[in-house]
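Weekly structure sync, notes
Attendees: PL, DS, HV (note-taker this week)

Item 1: Sulfatase-like hydrolase/transferase
DS walked through the input record. Source organism listed as Vallitalea pronyensis. Sequence as pasted into the shared doc:
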Amino acid sequence: MTDTQRWDMISCARDTGLQTPNIDKLAANGIRFNKAYTTQAVCQPARAGIFTGMYPNACGSWTNVVGLGDDIHTIGERLQDKGVHTAFIGKWHLDGGDYFGLGKSPKGWDAHYWFDMRNYLHEMSDEDRMLSRDPKNMETHDFSEDFTFAHKCTDRAIDFLENHGEEDFFLTLSYDEPHLPCICPREYYEKYEDYTFPKSENLKDDLTNKPDFQKYWAGERLYLDKDKLQLEDKYFFGCNEFVDYEIGRVLDKIEELVPDAIVMYTSDHGTMMYSHSLTLKGPSGYDEINRIPFIIKGKDVPQNIVDNAPVSHIDIAPTIFDLFNLKIPSVFAGNSLLPQIEGNVKQVNEQVFFEFGRFERDHDCFGGLQIMRAAFDGRYKLVINLLSTDELYDTLTDPGEMNNLILDEETKAIRNKLHQAILNNMDEHRDLFRGYYWDRRPWNENAAEPQWYDGLTRQREDEEYEERQYAFFSGLPMETAIREIHVRSFFS
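Item 1 (cont.): predicted structure, written out as tokens:
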């Protein structure tokens, strides 16, 4: 996986002039899911969805710099306990540390191969650390491949394949690239000296009838002359091609040593690049940050297929367990994609869901708390912004998501169906922020009266790692995870 690589930054998905030949080859030999979505467009929550199989809000990682609890078990730990050799190389971002991580292998992964960004920095002199954090230093220093985080991660992945390729294994290679600081050899960024990324019409979105916080997020960018604006960043786009090269090194080794291996490729989230006058990522449901590249290739996987059914990062964990012929843990919130891959069903998801809570615990430069829940059915996208205006888009007739249909009478039934799907999903997966206020939106004339107490308790089931939780009033193991309870008054 990569970091901050939009769905349309791979050339097989959209012809933008960017070059990603190795990822394109992977897609030609497998299935490219054209409508794949992250669970939250922030580094740690996105990874939480992938590596715990739970939505960020449900596993506690709904913002950066909040570590997973001891009662949350990653797919590495679960697979290792089933006899699979698991290794993680690269950016982890789930330990509660800062951007670089804590430099220590968590439970469930081979410590010999562990190499996060703090480990990378520890190998450097103070001077090289500082050089590695500013892309402008590439103008005065010729950084070799060996200097980069990506190359060092690739070397370790190749070593793992050479030494453990004959075992049952699950190897994750998590690049930081092309995320800032975009360090790469000169030959890659110089190719993009005069390159501009093609502009979309939604750069001119004036944010009329959009959530108010999007206007604050845009700031002065809302008033820029978008005709004169050029989407130029030779370092970012050069690093995008460089990480493709590094991925190619691994794919070549897989082809040589374990040609039947299942290979999955994705990125954690995208970046706005001035669409809707917004930059980076944050509390929005727009495709620029939530839609991600996702490819699966391997033995018995159909080749050169573009699948337009909606899929999600939340489906990765159950798919992996299904591929290993293991029982899918009940705490996993997604669906295995195997029936869809094998052609037994057209799609396993009627909708996919994604969210936003807060960018980071330590940062107040990304808007603070903006709670969002969204659903996408392959065409229509409903975004509920708890503290602001809600949004509905028809991505078929309005792919730039310019026209907010939240009050449109013609799409009212579709809006209401997606709304109910969000409410049901929040209940089913014990969303930390669920409550009556999600139902009582200004446009929902059929909202139920506020209900303080619904008489239900929803307990997590993780049969392999937890004994049955005890019912409060009996002290006996619960019989069903979702059940009615009656609160007794302690005061007359």
